[in-house]
């Protein structure tokens, strides 16, 4: 079989939200094994773009193509909703629901699905909480459970919408470590991040968005751009290393 | 103990009570199952809206001398579709819009009634329920609806869970979520239409909301909540009907009060740390 060089391509995509244009002419490509970080201020259209990629919103124009995987083989880690906070569900019930997309029209889970769910719980260190209630978990544990669910759905591609939002620093770095390991094991990641430092550290590609793409390319090239310097608030490029970190923290 | 047996024996010697029992238990069961999803999705008001629209339609149908159920079922199904659309659309304040529709439908009903028949016993029965209203065809209709709801519910149980817990994830992984939402709304409309005769248009929505809310106090898994709601709902209906017979109180209201008592009991249990 021919090796697939592109996994997801987004060509000249425009989207609107509540009748207003939220994202305009975005193009990028994701290759297998990539970790693409999408950064930008609040309201810059990051989540809208991701919804467009997932087919949750209709594109105004442009095209999103998936190569080598079906739409139902993508894992998605959405932002938590109010409904979920006090939802009575066991951890296992939540994780198993990630297997639904491979059930086709069959109504019940197979033994294979159950094994897959347990495997992913194990992978994220949540196996001992399988029977616990989702609403009793800490925010970090809840996020791990949702990630385990996404892994049940995903073969090769995971889309994450601010995976560490609302987590304390310890839980956040734990989750990033998990994501890094998944990425090393061959999972392709597309991740929206509020936290520029982590976006730079874990992503090999950056898409900086403010309605329009301000930058798209390799992470090391991004560090050289004026867009990046404006984002971290550094005036001169040579002060970049010295001050960058502090300013980034201020952005979170 | 023998007194209780005598009471039950007397109770079941009346054909109309047996009918009411059968219809009521089936409706209670279905309402509880659907209620879990409606409450968790914050759609509780839909049940209320549907029953009030049902009452309004019924009043209009009566004044035009049309068959009540044949007219109100299609109208309520249509209402279910619109109420769901309103709830899903975050731009309009969904709960406020539903409250508007439901009180308007009620007002239309009351005005039409006062212009035609006036507030007679029939109208009162429609509002607050009557166990005398059950005919043989009602039993057949409600059994058919209940079997239909149960089969669909069991076969889409996991998908209903997924669509309730996280709509965006379910949609992103290829599920047709709006289809399931519509299914839930339509099934709710059917159940409310059938159950309204016993429970009354004003009280039927409690059958949808109470069991789910009560079970959620104590149970922490979705399956636990669903099973507990089903059992609780049927038990409360049974006890409510027996009590209403023994104390000569209205059936619908008695069932609601038994539900309320169970809710308080579960809430206290939860405060005391009971968990399942």
Offer a concise description of the structure.
The complex is a heterodimer of chains A (252) and B (276). Chain A is α/β, with parallel strands linked by helices and 252 residues long. Chain A has helices spanning 46-54, 82-85, 91-96, 111-123, 139-153, 169-184, 196-202, 219-222, 226-232, 240-251; strands at residues 8-17, 20-30, 35-39, 61-66, 74-77, 157-161, 188-192, 205-210, 212-218.
Describe the structure.
The complex is a heterodimer of chains A (252) and B (276). Chain A has a domain of 139 residues: P-loop containing nucleotide triphosphate hydrolases (Rossmann fold, 3-Layer(aba) Sandwich). Chain A has a 6-stranded mixed sheet, with helices on both faces. A 3-stranded antiparallel sheet of chain A has the order 2-1-4, with helices on one face. The radius of gyration of chain A is 19 Å and the shape is globular. Chain A starts with 7 loop residues before the first strand and ends with a helix. Chain A is an alpha/beta fold and 252 residues long. Chain B is an all-alpha fold and 276 residues long. In chain B, 82% of the residues lie in helices and 0% in strands. The longest helix of chain B has 26 residues. The two termini of chain B are 31 Å apart. Chains A and B meet through β5, α3 and α5 of A and α8, α9 and α12 of B.
């Amino acid at each position: 079989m021919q090796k697939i060089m592109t996994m997801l391509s987004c060509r000249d995509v425009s989207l609107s939200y509540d009748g207003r244009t939220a994202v305009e002419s975005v193009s990028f490509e994701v290759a297998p094994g990539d970790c693409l970080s999408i950064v930008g201020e609040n309201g810059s259209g990051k989540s809208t773009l991701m919804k467009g990629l997932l087919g949750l919103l209709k594109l105004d124009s442009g095209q999103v193509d998936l190569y080598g995987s079906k739409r139902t083989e993508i894992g998605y880690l959405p932002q938590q909703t109010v409904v979920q906070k006090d939802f009575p569900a066991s951890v296992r019930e939540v994780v198993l629901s990630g297997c639904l997309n491979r059930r086709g029209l069959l109504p019940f889970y197979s033994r294979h699905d159950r094994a897959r769910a347990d495997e992913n719980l194990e992978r994220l260190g949540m196996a001992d909480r399988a029977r616990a209630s989702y609403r009793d978990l800490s925010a970090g544990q809840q996020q791990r459970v949702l990630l385990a669910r996404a892994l049940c759905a995903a073969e090769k591609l995971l889309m994450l919408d601010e995976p560490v939002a609302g987590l304390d620093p310890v839980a956040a770095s734990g989750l990033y470590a998990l994501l890094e390991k998944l990425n090393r094991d061959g999972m392709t990641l597309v991740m929206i991040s509020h936290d520029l430092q982590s976006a730079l550290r874990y992503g090999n590609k950056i898409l900086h968005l403010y309605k329009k793409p301000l930058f798209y390319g390799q992470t090391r090239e991004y560090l050289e751009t004026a867009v990046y310097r404006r984002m971290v608030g550094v005036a001169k490029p040579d002060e970049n290393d010295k001050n960058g970190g502090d300013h980034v923290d201020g952005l979170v | 103990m023998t007194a209780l047996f005598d009471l039950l024996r007397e109770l079941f010697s009346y054909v109309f009570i047996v009918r009411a029992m059968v219809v009521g238990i089936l409706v209670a069961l279905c309402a509880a199952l659907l209620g879990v999803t409606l409450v968790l999705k914050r759609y509780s008001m839909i049940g209320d809206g549907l029953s009030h629209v049902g009452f309004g339609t019924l009043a209009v149908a009566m004044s035009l001398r049309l068959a009540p159920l044949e007219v109100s079922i299609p109208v309520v199904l249509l209402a279910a579709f619109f109420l769901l659309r309103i709830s899903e659309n975050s731009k309009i304040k969904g709960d406020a819009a539903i409250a508007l529709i439901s009180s308007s439908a009620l007002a239309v009903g009351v005005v039409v009634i006062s212009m035609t028949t006036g507030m007679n016993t029939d109208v009162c029965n429609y509002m607050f329920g009557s166990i005398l209203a059950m005919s043989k065809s009602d039993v057949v209709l409600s059994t058919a609806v209940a079997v239909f709801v149960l089969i669909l519910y069991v076969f889409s149980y996991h998908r209903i869970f997924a669509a309730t817990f996280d709509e965006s994830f379910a949609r992103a992984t290829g599920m047709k979520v709006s289809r399931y939402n519509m299914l839930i709304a339509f099934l709710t409309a059917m159940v409310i239409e059938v159950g309204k005769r016993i429970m009354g248009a004003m009280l039927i929505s409690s059958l949808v909301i109470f069991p789910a809310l009560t079970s959620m106090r104590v149970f922490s898994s979705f399956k636990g909540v669903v099973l507990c709601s089903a059992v609780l709902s049927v038990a409360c209906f049974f006890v409510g009907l027996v009590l209403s017979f023994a104390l000569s109180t209205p059936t619908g209201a008695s069932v609601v009060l038994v539900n309320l008592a169970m809710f308080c009991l579960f809430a206290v249990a939860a405060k005391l740390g009971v968990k399942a």
